[in-house]
Amino acid sequence: MTILISVFFITIASVFLSKYIKKYSQCLYLIFTFIALVATVHAIMIVNNYSITYIPVLKQVMKAIDSGAVGGASFMLVMYTGVLNKKYKVTRNLMQIRAELSILSGIITIPHNVHYFFHFILGKANLSAQVGIPLWANLMMFTSAVFAIMIMIPLFITSFRYFRKKMSGKAWKNLQEYAYIFYGLLFIQVIMVYVLKPASMTRNFCLVFYSSIFLSYAGQKIMQVYNKKRTAVSVKIKEV
Ligand code: HEM
Asked: Going residue by residue through the chain (240 aa), what tens digit of pLDDT does each one get?
């Protein structure tokens, strides 16, 4: 359920505070970097079998960051903004801060990446003792996650205006196309995460929730591209 709460708060904040997110983005990058730093130290301590006790609320927030829910929720908002109807003010608000949201999502996902990447690398996932579906699901989760990071890094860097200006518009647009592969890899990762979890209502709900978000996005994106192509063809026919 952490993902639902994360999606709710991140969407509400992004829609209603978009003006301030845009205006104070540099400040927000610093604040998020500080929180990510603390959460990364926590992740390294967990991997080394230490633990940190937080006051309530902070505990839930740090757990949501560590589990990937906060990073995942904000990336899903960035993703979905691309298929929302632009006639709505909500969509225009979100479109204005898409670069900022991508940067904040990238920063807040670092602790999760550090935690679970080293969790796997240090053999804590106990892959050698696994066979069949658990083994393949773990390998697919790890591989899709690592490739997702490899795509996320250049997308993250080129979301900063300073680097974006150094690229031609065409080169930047071509690079952004990789975001669709990133979303696909993210989907594979979270589905494998929940396939591996013991059967429960929460697990089944999360499987349905993530599938409906990513598959409805894919469906709308395909329709959007198809309609765009169809309009372009009909304009061409009219010109002839
Ligand atoms: C771009 C990078 C990544 C993103 C956006 C991401 C996102 C997510 C999301 C959304 C979840 C589910 C959270 C939930 O429903 O509560 C998750 C869980 C998980 N991810 Fe990632 N992830 C990333 C990288 C990685 C990497 C590199 C690994 C390991 C190699 C990894 C391993 C895991 C594991 C083991 C879980 C389950 C955590 C738990 O049970 O609480 N992730 N991730």
From this structure: 899 999 999 999 999 999 999 999 999 999 999 999 999 999 999 888 888 888 888 999 999 999 999 999 999 999 999 999 988 999 999 999 999 999 999 999 999 999 999 989 887 777 788 888 899 999 999 999 999 999 999 999 999 999 999 999 999 999 999 999 999 999 999 999 999 999 999 999 999 999 999 999 999 999 999 988 888 888 877 777
Other CB atoms within a 10 A radius of the CB of residue 73 amount to 23
Rounded Cα–Cα distance for residues 194 and 189 (Å): 9
Question: Which residue minimizes the CA distance to atom 39 of ligand 1?
Answer: 67
Going by alpha carbons, the residue nearest to atom 43 of ligand 1 is 68
- Ligand 1 in reach of 115 Cβ (< 6 A): no
User: Is the CB of 149 within 6 Å of ligand 1?
Assistant: yes
Q: Which residue has tokens 């106990």? A: 126
